[in-house]
Design goal:
alpha+beta; tRNA-splicing ligase RtcB; seven-stranded mixed β-sheet; 13 helices; disordered C terminus
Length: 495
């Protein structure tokens, strides 16, 4: 496969021409080092996505890589259609950051970190759906509260039932998602219909996964904070030399089931009407806004998004509880919760469009209308960017230049090795030794080889691309002190 040609437009920007010269080109964010690493398949997928009916803009972030249908690390806009592919199967996969009112020295001791890992795992399990409620100190959400959570979102009554501070809702990118008609009633009707028709027969079982991380690239990570922009960090509630806790997870099996229902519904629709898949790819199916199929998909997405929101908020409440058990007197607060697999109505180019972000994060700067009435209206909201445990992670804030990228930035470093490639080429002993050398504890006897830092792009180059392109500036760097992931075998040895 020949690699499509990128045309540089700046030190960290380029365009990728669409195959149809009548279409506007794809905006690409990345310096030369990043651009040279884009795989041909990723760029081809971007061109495929640009040709889908209704799409007005496509943006590739520096972390972009080959995905299903649309690349992971892209944003797409349309005033007329919705697309399940550029949302993905983990609806509202997200990041959240919890501030702990502790100095970084409080987590220097390995025995303390090991105790924190154990206390967190006793409350928030990792891995696939099996044995999710085997944790002795977890919090089981009853079916009534679970149904209210996914159909109403992070309302005061739901937060109370989950044991989550009510003000945390103000620190969510979106605390509440509604149905296609702007109501939560539509979501209740839709979910009831799915259950009664047998399309989603095990709703209550999936709702038992509230407060869990899942597997894959999802993780929990304790961080030492190093502030680079004091004024903005203060507005975010971050303290130089403090401790924070970064979480990455999504809508679990509940959201996955809904996403698959959306794909199958539209694939069947395309088959009934003998409509060809865009570029021959069934993962690029679409639905015109206002159609029954679009209404259904928007309801599915909102249900999954509400699950993801409450899942993160519950996890953060449980993590704070774990710190309080190990280090009595610990207090803390939510910094922010932000997603990277979702579609939303936003103003783009003077008109309302649905902006789809797949592995891309919203980036609204100070004064953006979308932040009106939030604690971040005058400064811009926190952008949470995970790198890898050894390269660290980052907190950024958007600049006005983010308009060129649909007010979107990368959601992390992005993979440079597929999972199979990583398993074939990386050495397990060297990966594990590198964590020991960096004094980063994990819950795993063997760190998942396909999640090794070497499987990901150079995070500093990714961040440099974002800053050079004028999309966002750094506020703080985060240095991992321990990591909790879905490993093959939990570590049970001494500190």
């Amino acid at each position: 496969m020949s690699t499509p040609t990128l045309i540089p437009t700046g030190d960290a920007t380029a365009i990728l021409p669409a195959r149809d010269e009548r279409l506007t080109p794809i905006t690409v964010i990345g310096n030369e080092a990043i651009r040279s690493g884009f795989e041909a398949g990723c760029l081809t997928q971007a061109q495929n996505a640009r040709e889908v009916p209704g799409v007005t803009s496509v943006v590739l972030s520096p972390d972009a890589h080959f995905g299903y249908g649309a690349p992971v690390g892209c944003a797409m806009a349309s005033p007329t259609h919705v697309y399940p592919g550029p949302v993905g199967v983990d609806i509202k996969c997200s990041m959240s950051l919890l501030r702990l009112d502790l100095p970084a020295e409080a987590v220097d001791d390995k025995r303390t970190r090991r105790a924190l890992i154990d206390a967190i795992q006793a409350r928030t399990p990792t891995g696939a759906g099996r044995n999710q409620r085997s944790v002795p100190k977890g919090r089981t959400i009853d079916p009534v509260s679970g149904w209210e959570a996914v159909t109403r979102g992070a309302t005061p009554s739901v937060l109370d039932a989950f044991g989550v501070p009510a003000h945390w809702a103000t620190r969510c990118e979106d605390a509440v998602h509604v149905g296609h008609d702007g109501t939560g009633d539509a979501l209740m009707t839709r979910l009831t219909e799915l259950q009664e028709t047998g399309a989603f027969p095990h709703v209550d079982a999936k709702l038992r996964q509230f407060g869990t991380y899942g597997g894959g690239n999802h993780f929990a990570e304790c961080e030492a904070v190093s502030v680079e922009d004091a004024a903005t960090a203060d507005a975010f509630g971050l303290v130089d030399g403090g401790v924070a806790f970064l979480s990455h997870c999504g809508s679990r099996g509940f959201g996955y089931t809904l996403a698959q229902l959306g794909f199958r519904m539209l694939e069947d629709h395309f088959a009934r009407w003998s409509t060809p898949f865009p570029a021959g790819d069934k993962n690029l199916v679409y639905a015109p806004l206002g159609s029954p199929e679009a209404d259904a998909y928007l309801d599915y997405m909102a249900l999954g998004a509400n699950f993801a929101t409450l899942n993160h908020l519950l996890i953060n409440a449980l993590v704070l509880e774990a710190f309080q058990e190990v280090i009595p007197g610990t207090t803390g607060d939510l910094v922010y919760f932000i997603s990277h697999n979702i579609a939303r109505e936003e103003e783009v180019g003077g008109q309302t469009q649905w902006v789809h972000r797949k592995g891309a994060t919203r980036a609204f700067p100070a004064g953006h209308p979308g932040l009106a009435g939030t604690p971040f209206a005058d400064v811009g909201h926190p952008i949470l960017l995970p790198g890898n445990p050894q390269a660290g992670s980052a907190v950024m804030v958007a600049e006005p230049g983010a308009e060129q990228s649909l007010y979107s930035v990368n959601h992390g470093a992005g993979r440079q090795m597929g999972r199979r490639h990583a398993k074939r080429t990386l050495d397990q002993k060297r990966v594990d030794a590198s964590f020991d050398a960096a004094d980063i504890l994990t819950n795993c006897r063997r760190y998942p080889i396909d999640e090794a830092p070497a499987a990901y792009k150079d995070f500093d180059e990714v961040l440099a691309s974002v800053e050079t392109a004028g999309l966002a500036r750094p506020v703080a760097r985060l240095r991992a002190r321990f990591v909790v992931k879905d490993g093959d075998t939990e570590y049970r040895g001494a500190a």
